[in-house]
Every structure is written in structure tokens, then in C-alpha cells.
Fold:
Amino acid sequence: MTSSPARPNYTLTLIATAFVLFWMVVAGFPFLWTTWGSFKVEADFFSRADWSNALSGVNTIRQTGDAFTMDGYKGAWILNDFWRAGLNTMLVTVVVTVLSLVLGTLGGYALARSGYRYAFWILILALVFRAMPHITLVSGYLVPFFQLNIWGTLPTAIIVLVAINQPFTLWMLHSFFLSIPKDLDESAMVDGCTRFQAFREVIVPVMWPGIITTGLFSFLLAYNDFAVTAMLLRQENQTMIPKIASFLGSIESEGNVMFAVSSVVSATVPLFILVMFFQRQIVGGLTAGAVKG
Amino acid sequence: MADIKLKGITRRWNDFIGVDNLNLDIADREFLVLLGPSGCGKSTTMRMIAGLEEVSSGEIWLGERMVNNLEPKDRDISMVFQSYGLYPTMSVYENIRFPLRIRKVPASEHKERVLRAAEMVELTQFLDRRPAALSGGQRQRVALARAIVRAPNAFLMDEPLSNLDAKLRVSTRAQIANLHHELKTTTVYVTHDQVEAMTLADRVVVMKNGIAQQIAPPMDIYNKPANTFVASFIGAPAMNLIEGHLEAGTFTSPVLTVSGLPHRHSGPVTLGFRAEDVAVVSEGGNLAAPVYSVERLGDSTMFAIRAKDDLISLKADKAASLAIGDVVRAAVTAKVSHIFDGTTGQRIEPLLIPA
Amino acid sequence: MPHKAFAWFILPSALAMILFIALPLVSIVVQSLYIEHPQVLTQVESCSPFGGCTMETRVDAAATAALRDAQPLGRFNGLGTYFNRSHLATREIATILKDTDGIADSLRRIYQLPFYRALLFTLCYTAVVTPLGMLAGFWIALAVNRIPAVLKGPVIFVSLLPMIITPLIGSLVIYWMVNSRGILGNLLQWVTQDPTLSIAASGPLTWLTLFLYGIWIAAPFSFVVFYAGLQTVPQDTLESAMIDGANRWERVRFVIIPHLVPLATFVALVQLMDNFRVLEPIIGFNAQASATSLSFSIYNDLQAENGQLFASAAATSLLTIALLIVLLFPVLIRTWRDFSRKSAH
Structure:
């Protein structure tokens, strides 16, 4: 006799809870540890002698007089101009998100409402585009961009990111639009709207939750991008992620790994906040994509 | 206000034909019902009139204008959708006002017109609510109010009652009939429910597989169905249809023989008669078979008898004592019989009206 | 929607994709057929006061620059780049197969060729991480479904972190921990009692670390999707299975798993695409000595110190895309069948 939902099996619940706790440590501990370590000096966080130095901060106290130090952050943000990269990232992600959504809602709406075969083929093509590693496209950008003399600037990177994100944005918004009944656009059109008025006055107000969710993912794609921003931006225009990558070569050899650690932690903070406030939308977005397939 | 003319309209998707060469003149102020099972092309026809569906060939005229290439907004019609198509982000008031706002009707008129429309469908106390806070019947009335808030060329209604429960359906049906009487606007109404068609329509178009089977006033359709499909679709219960052979005015089949038919036709035919036209008799009669099922409706008793492979519906009065298995006799007369061609299913008219 | 309205709505999006996805593909094809100009060499007679005059070969920088400006694509090379040593290496493989000491030896020697090295790692990474990530996510989802409701919110919050984290940042965070001076590296040395043990120095350990990292970032996505799927398991079916006498495992086997299969296909597709493009972990883990991927090869060509190798990068890109289409083919076929069936009425 197996237990029914009314009579829970406590052993199983216990095992499940233990497993989940283990997973939480695996998933969360690295971030906790790195954040903690970013306030130490290198000799503590990367300790040759004893790993517990990172907890007690022996060398941090010896070098700075306190168990916690902001030296890493100072070095990265002020000495190495990480603030500029932060501003660039903000600019790039905000503009990319807005443009992606504008283009994506228009296109996704058309794809969801057209019953013709070519709409299907556009979606399939978008799927193939979505599958292509971004770096393969980047190798196609460089030569033409050098020739047109548009390499290295923020607008170029923004437009490229918008285009590269379009396949994903189209798919996601297309499936959100499919969940809005066609009757709504049709009654708007019978009531006197043009197609575009129906879209703007009636459909978009209903779509806001879907647009916000898709916007979150567009934001993540732009924020997390490495291939495009690393290859298409010149040094002074770099965003945070390529900046961190360039730290790896230069700063580590100078013994300032802690600059890289602190900038990594800094770049995690916005993502952390994002998950905190938009957990529901992110989960909903992942699920919506899956359900519509 | 306008009349609507459909001249040979056809809707094709690749090799599938949704509506096939439909010709129809809808008079000004007429209440026309498109009736048929799902997939018969009735909704497609209405959507072509609205401009929501492209016309593959043929012409649609609204009044003096050929509207094939006009956008829905330029056709000046209003429409009630099956799932109502209310704007969930707007209040009831805003929903009803929407057509006025979008069509640039002077803002000073809005309030008065919205209130008048709301009053006609008894919505005045719900104007501040969102559609999500309304019951199904109230939502349906918002859709109606939105349609009548301006004076369009025509009303189109796409199965407006199908999402309501049975009781509400009856009262809303009466409301629609009353609105049409009051506003006198040309109305095209799509339904698969023959009771709605019979009760509301000035004329009914019965459709099947994209082809109009019969276009006539409800009682004509009931009394003289054009073919076996219409005969079985109109009336509750459906007309009994028995296949057999007609020769010199006498219909013969393994279960039933009817003589004295005023038809000069010989060959395979289908004989049809309605349950309510046939009397149950204690002696004689030309139909005898055991009872298969009994349904007591209160005012009368419907029952079915099983004769060979056919289930035949019959009607008895409410006091009839019937039990499953009893043998029942009935008299099917020539007068109540309809004759249809055995192969084409088309009605064969009698040569002279039987006395 | 009529064709004209459709065209206007899709135009901006389509234009962006044509300009920045389709045209670059053309550009890649063209680039892959050309090869960088060699440096222009000149013979210079250099005379020293005592040694007399000798002829020297020097790089003519000005002439090289002029040539590169005049023909930025380089000179036409046909399909040469595709078959050279850095790519398909047909000649090298022919040689290897000719004088081989058995299959193991030829495989080992083929693995020395850069393209095949990258290919092998990419395929292994995709083949290992995709199913294991999904499996991990499935178990986490089953477990989370059973724990008390108060815990579920925080668990989902923490679980999302590895997924939404920037891949480069995630790999750095882990790399710093497994580094021989990091906490996990220390732990490993203590467990094995080998103070010289370093993951970076060992090829197999690097691969293993990269795989584990891949599962770490892949599991949350599967978890969230499967967890959402578990909430929609039809209760009626579950209850009738109970009444029919199915035990716990049989209910998972016959009700829950079939319900999740469509979701699993979707997850597999997305994960396949994401894992196939693996790039950042190799940079973050500084692992190119023992593991390179196709994406990394392209990145490396474009980062090359003395002049970017556009032709080489373009050829690798096209080979990558070709492979990807082969991998996606079953999906495309299936989608096409679904669509045909739906539109057939």
C-alpha cells in the first residue's frame, strides 16, 4: 500500500528536503563565498597556506588593519575605470532591451496573427538563427565593420545585439501573442481601428505582462553577452563583461586578482536584484516558452 | 442602414473550400440567420461580410458600395463575437465608448450615447467594472451595447449565445429579438442552434460544406425542407427519414408502407415525417415496432421505436403509458409525408396539394 | 492578416535580422574563400663599413599595408582554408591513416589537429551536459515538489542564480574556487592527500570540471520548466492511476513522465543550442591548454596577436553552422511534420 497525498510519506519528504538543501548550497554557496572573499586581500582569498584564512582574514588584517577591505573595489572601479564600463553596460542593456521589444512586439504580433505558410518559415529561420553561436556571426561582422568604419562604437554593438536577440524575442513574444484571443483585434477593427490602432490601443495594453517578461530576458541576453561586446567594442567603450575579461590577462599578472574578483561581484549585483524582484516573471517566461513549444 | 448583397462569394484555402459560390440578398432591416453545423462556412461568410476574412472570388455589396477591398473599419458594421472580444484593460463604460472614440465621434455625445446603449441592455449599474468582474451574461450584454452604441450599416452576431447557460440563453434571445424590433437594423446572425434560428429569423440560410442548402423563412424551412439535410437539421426531434421505394404513389420499405402519395415519381426515395405529425393508434396503423426509449418532457412524452435498423421518434401525450419493449402502432399518412430523392436527397414536390 | 499588413509589421525585425544575421553569413562565406596577404618582402642590399655588402630580405611594411588596404579581403584561396591543417586537415588525416599503429594511435594523432580537438570537446560537452543537466533538473524539480511550501520560494530564488548569471562571471566564480589556491582546490588536495594536485594541470580533470560547471548552469533551467510542468500534471489521471493500483514509481513512470515529455523536448532543444556554443567557460577557466571548443577556435582566431585570422575564423564558423544544422535536422523535420498535419485540416 503506497501513501496517498493525504498521508504523506515522511521519509521521502526528509530525503527530498536534504537533497534540496544540498542543491541550494551547490547553487548559492559559490556566490556567497566570492562575495565574502572580495572584501579580503589576495593572500587570504587565494591562500596558499590555509583556506580558513579567507574566513578569518589574517592577511587582510595585517595588510589593511581591518578584517574587511574595499581595496579590490577601489582598484577596479576607480583605478581601472570600471565605472565607465558600468555606465556603458547600463546604456547598452537599456537601449537593447527597448529596441528589442519594439521590433519584437511588432514582428511577434504579425507572426502570431498570420495564418500563411511564410510566417511558419520565418519562425523556423529564426530558430536556426537562434541556434547559431554568436561568435560565428561576429567573425562576419569584423571585416565589413572595419571597412565601414563603424567598428568599436556603442551604437554598433547595440544594433548588433538587438538583431542577434531578435530570433529569441520573436519566438517568445509570438507565443505570448498567440495566447491573446484573435477576437480582441477583430472586434477592435470592426469597431473602427486600423490594424496598427488595434495593435496599439487594444493588444499592447493586454500584452504588458508578456512584454515585461520578454524584456527581462532581452535584458539578460544583452547583459550577459560576451562574444559580441568583447569583439566589437574598442577599449574605451567596453562594457563590464569584456572589461572583466581584459582584467584577466592584464591585472592578474600584476598581482591584482582582487580587482577582477570585486568587479565580478559588482557585475553580479544587478542580476541578483533582478531575480529578487522579477522571480515570478522569469519563471513564468521560461514556462510560457516551454508550454507553447 | 443598408441592404447586403453577396454575389457568388467563395472562400478557398489551398484546396479546401470554406464557402462555395454563395448568392444572397439581405434586405434592409432584415434579420437573417446563417444556420448549420460547425465547419459549414457560416462564420466564414459572416467574417467576409465584416472584412475579417479575405474573399477569394465574388463580390460583397453593402448598400451602394462594393466593399471587397475595404478594411473592416471602413465598412461601418458592428459585430458581436462568440467570446465577446471585450477589452480586458478597459471598464465597461470605456468598452462601450471605444467605437465612438476610435471613430472620432464628437466627445460631447459619448456619455449620452453610452448611457443609452447601456440602458437598453440593462448595464447601467456595471459601467465602472472591468469585464473580468462580470458574469457571462453581463459580458455578453456589454458586447451587445458596444455594437448598438452607434448606428451601423448592419449588425453581425457570431454565435452570441453559445457561451451562456440554457436559462440565460432564452432571456438574451428575447432581448436580441426586442433590440432588433426597436433598432430595425439589418442583422446577420450565425448559429448552430435551430431553435435560435427559428425564433429570431426573418429568413434562415441553412448551410452545409460551404453551400447554402435552403434560403427561406423559418416556417417554410420547417414545412418544406429542401433536402434530407435540412429536414434532419430543423426541428426537435429531427425528422424521421426512412429509405425505401416509390412506385405509383406508394412508398414501400421493410418497415413502413404509405400509399396515396401525390408524387409522380418512381424509384428509390427517402420518406420523411415529423414525430409531432404522427398519431399513435391502438389498432391498425402502418408502423409497428417495440419501444426503445421513453423521454417524459412534462407536457408530452417523446419516445423512440426500433424498426429494423431505424430508430423512429414519435410523440404521445403526457399521460401515455409506455414501457420499453412494448409494441406501439402508429399511422403515417400521405399528408404528413415528405418525399426526397433517394440518391440526391432533394425534395420531390407533390403534383397536387393532398386534400 | 493580409500580406501587406504582415509585411509592415515584420519589416523592422526582418530588416535587423537580414542586415546583421543573414548578410554576415554571406560575409563569412566570402571571407572563408580568401586568405590574408603574405607580408611583402624586399631584397635590400645592406653594406657595412667592414664586411662588405650582403643581400638581406626584409618586410616591406609600407607595401604590405598598401596591399592590405587595396584588397582587404586578401587573396582568393578557394576552399583551401577548409582543408588546411587548422580545419578539416584532409592531407594530415590521409597521412595518419596511411601509417597508423592501430585505431587508438590514429585517434590520438587526429586529436592533435586543432579542429578535431575543438570538435571533440564541443560534442562531448554537448552530449554530456545536455542530458545530465536535464536529469539533475528533473530530480531537483521532483524534490522541490515534495518539500514544505515555505521553502519553495527561497529554493527557486537560489536555483535561478546559476542560470541567469553571466557565463563568464559564473565560470570565473567557480574557477577561483577550484583553483589550486581556492577553497575547493584545497579541499581536493586534502581529500587526495596530494598537495601538488592542480585541476588546471590535468587534462581529464579540466574536462570534468568544465562538464560539472556546465551541469551547474544548465540544471536550473530544466528544474524551473519541469517544476512548472509538475504543477500541471492532470490530477484526474493521477488519481485514477492510484485507484487503478499504481504505486508511487508507476505513477511517475506512466503519468508524470509522459506529461513532461513535450517539455523535455523543448528543454533539450534549447540546451543543445546553448551547450553547443560553449565559449566563456574555456576563457574563464583558462582551459585552452586542455580543452578548446569550436566557438573558442573562432574567438582565438579573431584575437590572434599578429593580425586577426579572418579566413580561418570564417571557415570554422561555417563548419560549425553546417554541423549545427545537421544536429537540428531532426527537430526541423519534426516541426515541419507538425505544421503540415495542422494545416492539412
